[in-house]
Design brief:
Blueprint: H1 17-20, H2 24-27, H3 29-49, H4 63-71, H5 75-88, H6 91-105, H7 121-158, E1 164-167, E2 172-175, E3 178-181, H8 198-217
Antiparallel strand pairs: 1-2, 2-3
Length: 221
């Protein structure tokens, strides 16, 4: 069955697919597999750089070839790992075997038993997933956030002379960048106590989110 809007499990991969396609390189299953490969490779390189005694003779010039395993990762590679998983019945173990096969191809068979050395599957997942979030934030979310902010700032100037109802509680009306007061209508008092121009509110909420995310993401390798 080929994926289309009617057989997708959720609307994200159905009717809204065209809105989130830019996130596929970060949050699809193929992307997760690729990030797992990246973490495994970088961990092995880190062991070589210590150096772990058993890896003392590893040629550091091979690091570029190792990094190409994940930098050149594509759908065909992901399918190969899924094929291995049919035997292992374990997603991270399938990644490990895929990399071992790559080591054989590169003539590095004598070092392949140090792939995934001392690690658990969750060590890989708990690094791969935050890394995908960090890169999605940097490459997709933050640039789009500033695009929306710029548009709001543009519209605030374009609509500067148009009154905008902002707080029916005390009758404050935003006429960006000016404010004027009108008689308050009878409505629920469960509304905000302050009126804030939309662009400023968006900027404040986005700044808080960005600051919170950056505090978390800065801890990710």
């Amino acid at each position: 069955m080929s994926l289309n809007e009617l057989n997708a499990i959720s609307p994200i991969d159905g009717r809204y697919r065209n809105k989130v396609a830019s996130l596929a390189p970060y949050f699809s299953e193929e992307a997760l597999i690729k990030y797992r490969v990246q973490v495994e490779i970088e961990y092995f390189i880190a062991l070589c750089e210590i150096p772990l005694p058993q890896l003392y003779g590893f040629d550091n010039a091979k690091f570029t070839a190792l990094r190409e395993i994940y930098s050149n990762f594509d759908t065909k590679d992901a399918e190969a790992i899924k094929e291995i998983e049919k035997t292992t019945n374990h997603d991270v173990k399938a990644v490990e075997y895929f990399i071992k096969n790559a080591f054989d191809t590169l003539g590095l068979s004598s070092f392949k038993e140090f792939i995934h050395f001392g690690l658990t599957s969750q060590d890989i997942n708990n690094t791969a997933i935050p890394l995908s979030i960090k890169e999605a934030m940097n490459s997709v979310y933050v640039p789009q956030y500033f695009t929306v902010l710029a548009k709001l700032e543009e519209l605030s100037k374009e609509w500067a002379t148009i009154p905008m109802l902002a707080n029916p509680v005390n009758g404050t009306v935003v006429n960006a960048p000016k404010m004027r007061t009108v008689a308050p209508p009878a409505v629920s008092r469960a509304l905000p106590e302050e009126a804030t121009p939309p662009a400023i509110a968006f900027f404040k909420s986005g700044s808080c989110l960005r600051s919170s995310m950056m505090r978390v993401l800065m801890k990710i390798p």
